[in-house]
Amino acid sequence: EAQVTQNPRYLITVTGKKLTVTCSQNMNHEYMSWYRQDPGLGLRQIYYSMNVEVTDKGDVPEGYKVSRKEKRNFPLILESPSPNQTSLYFCASSFGSGRAGKDTQYFGPGTRLTVL
Amino acid sequence: SQELEQSPQSLIVQEGKNLTINCTSSKTLYGLYWYKQKYGEGLIFLMMLQKGGEEKSHEKITAKLDEKKQQSSLHITASQPSHAGIYLCGADWKSDYGGSQGNLIFGKGTKLSVKP
């Protein structure tokens, strides 16, 4: 089954404790992206990756790191989480922006993170 | 992003009524995406529009793209409780060379409630 998986789905942590949220897709997609969703602010892009070893900042990259060593995986790293990073996080993937007919972005189920 | 405005922010309709949600971009669009989200869950792709005047339908949901206005409308006919959720539009803006800018920016969403 074609899907984007995220782990963990729920996480409660404390300020300053490094954490990683994993994202994996099994569709051989080139493009992957991380978003956070907050009430009143909507869905905002954190980082995206057009291909392996190619990553770019989105709208709100501060406090986050990503890596793309393999095509299927795109982990989101919070080196020193703070309470303002409490949010609902989504990973997404697609074949690639601009390729007509194959631009559908598939979203993961979300990771609800609480930083105390 | 304020560069992508959705209206209305929320909508409550009686079952069986028609409704329209609008999405207006301040930048030139390369592609416009519509997604639906159940509360707290991942986004489900509805449709993508690229050409001016293009119109696509998915069951009772129709979306149109007005290239001149850089605006898209999503119309639901004979709404049902299953249509309830958050509808988000996503913009893939045109780059300086005319292609895709490479990432997707979302509106804040429209929360739809359908009263039985």
Structural overview:
The complex is a heterodimer of chains A (116) and B (116). Chain A is mainly beta and 116 residues long. Chain A is built from no helices and 11 strands. Chain A has strands spanning 4-7, 10-13, 19-25, 31-38, 42-51, 54-57, 65-66, 76-78, 87-94, 106-107, 111-115. In chain A, the strands form 2 sheets. In chain A, strands 2, 4, 5, 6, 9, 10 and 11 form a 7-stranded mixed beta sheet that branches. Helix content of chain B is 0%, strand content 56%. Chain B has strands at 4-7, 10-14, 19-25, 29-37, 43-49, 55-58, 61-66, 71-76, 85-93, 105-106, 110-115. The model of chain B has no long low-confidence stretch (mean pLDDT 90). The chains are: A mainly beta (116), B mainly beta (116). The interface between A and B is medium-sized, with 28 and 27 residues.
Helix content of chain B: under 10%
List segments of chain A where confidence is low: pLDDT < 50 over at least 5 consecutive residues. 98-102
- Largest sheet: number of strands, sense, barrel closure of chain A: 7 strands, mixed
Low-pLDDT windows of residues of chain B: none
Terminal CA distance of chain B: 33 Å
Q: What would you report as the Rg of chain B, rounded to the nearest angstrom?
A: 14 Å
DSSP strand count of chain B: 11
Summarize the structure.
The complex is a heterodimer of chains A (116) and B (116). Chain A has 116 residues and is mainly beta.
